[in-house]
Amino acid sequence: MTDSAPPLDFYFDFSSPYGYLMSEKIDAVAARHGRKVRWHPILLGIIFKATGSAPLTLQNPAKAAYSIHDFERSARFMGIPYRHPSRFPLATQNAARAYYWLDGQDCALARQFAHAVYRALFVDDQDISAPETVIEIAAKLGVDRSNLENALQSPEIKARLKDEVDNALKIGVFGSPYVVIDGEPFFGADRLPQIEKWLETGAF
Amino acid sequence: MTDSAPPLDFYFDFSSPYGYLMSEKIDAVAARHGRKVRWHPILLGIIFKATGSAPLTLQNPAKAAYSIHDFERSARFMGIPYRHPSRFPLATQNAARAYYWLDGQDCALARQFAHAVYRALFVDDQDISAPETVIEIAAKLGVDRSNLENALQSPEIKARLKDEVDNALKIGVFGSPYVVIDGEPFFGADRLPQIEKWLETGAF
User: Fold this and answer.
1) Chain B residue closest to A171 (CA)?
2) Which positions in chain A touch B201 (Cβ < 8 Å)?
3) Is there a contact between A203 and A194 (Cβ–Cβ < 8 Å)?
4) CB contact under 8 A, A63 and B51
5) What is the ipTM, given to two decimal places?
6) How many other CB atoms are found less than 10 A from the CB of residue B202?
7) Pairwise CA distance, residues B100 & B107, whole Å
8) Which of A114, A126, A138 is nearest to A14 (CA)?
9) Which of A9, A18, B16, B200 could form a disulfide with A180 if both were Cys (CB 3.0 to 4.6 A apart)?
10) Is the CB of A187 inside 8 Å of chain B's CB atoms?
11) Residues of A whose CB is below 8 A from B65
């Protein structure tokens, strides 16, 4: 790490539509300003339980209907393919654990894996809650299946994910995506223009 | 009304920070595309009760703190003055009733009044829940005080506001601001870029 500017922190859940939209843009936006991004998959189920919140599609019917419409329209607006999953929301601890295990070995591979998981869910409608699906996605990137299968059950990896979720709660993360730049928090894919301006000007 | 394109509908509560931000932009955005805007003040208290929701600042502490920070930063981003009110949220039925009464007589004056109410709350920290404040704001625009004082208690005006709130609920409004363009709904001041693109392209 010879970069002088510290990396951005990007908190997201693998079942978050707006997290997916952010994931397709944030690295390039940061790179334009000479910054890198640390990715932190977290579990919104735990965050929502701790903060007394709920997924958009499980709130009132008007908001739920609007949200699904907005996921699709926001994706078109941002030029990103999107098909609302038939299983939604769904559990993401296997995907998140796999991410942290891969990240410990090869952070570029972990990033590729994260993109592949998001696209499997939001483009190809795969059941990424299943360990088999997560393992299959990783195997296509050259990862050894049985090593990953073991890793998904390892106490160290489970503890790493728990620590990440605990830390997210501690710094005030209440939803996904949540991006922190030099201590400044931005919630939602629709804050990308503000993120760009913040990176450009240092603050505003 | 000789315009061929139908007006946009803009639903908002006078205590909504993002509604205020939208109010400072929506007429000009619509005008750039030859469209007018119908303004509909509504009561979020009733909308939230009906939909089981709550103001952002009365949700969990992390979200509440972020929201106040985001109101201020979003205002700076949009070039709009903003000072978070010391009374917040607050009741807005007097402001909304005054709006509908004025609108029945002079829609341009009603629009001026709406801007003045929003700025009284979000720039000058006035207590716009009080009928005296609402009457004072209107009087500065040349409105007769006692006529307005009577209007605030008139059954017709109370019924008009109730009808507007009922209609908003019926078409799916669950928060403020909520803009409808030819049947297409947009929730939040951060949907302005999508609104602009929609007006430009007819759809996307």
Assistant:
1) B62
2) none
3) no
4) yes
5) 0.94
6) 10
7) 9
8) A114
9) A9
10) yes
11) 172
CA dist., res. A12 & res. A16, Å (int): 7
Least CB–CB distance from A51: residue in B62, B74, B191:
B62
Quote the minimal CA–CA distance from B99 to chain A in Å. 26
Q: Please tell me the distance from the alpha carbon of residue A201 to that of residue B77, in angstroms, as a whole number.
A: 12
Would you list the DSSP string of A58-124? GS-HHHHHHHHHHHHHHHHHHT------SS-S---HHHHHHHHHHHTT-HHHHHHHHHHHHHHHHTT
The whole-angstrom distance between B70's CA and the closest CA on chain A is 8
List domains and CATH numbers for chain A: 8-201 (3.40.30.10)
What span, in angstroms and rounded, lies between the C-alpha atoms of A124 and A86?
10
Confirm or reject contact between A72 and chain B (CB < 8 A).
Answer: no
What pTM was estimated for this model as a whole? 0.95
Chain B residue with CA closest to A49: the answer is B60
- The answer to whether the CB atoms of A63 and B76 lie below 8 A apart is no
Q: What is the pLDDT along chain B (204 residues), one digit of tens a residue?
A: 445 789 999 999 999 999 999 999 999 999 999 999 999 999 999 999 998 888 888 889 999 999 999 999 999 999 999 999 999 999 999 999 999 999 999 999 999 999 999 999 999 999 999 999 999 999 999 999 999 999 999 999 999 999 999 999 999 999 999 999 999 999 999 999 999 999 999 889
Q: What is the Cα–Cα distance from B186 to A60, expressed in whole angstroms?
A: 17
The two tokens of residue A75 are 């994706």
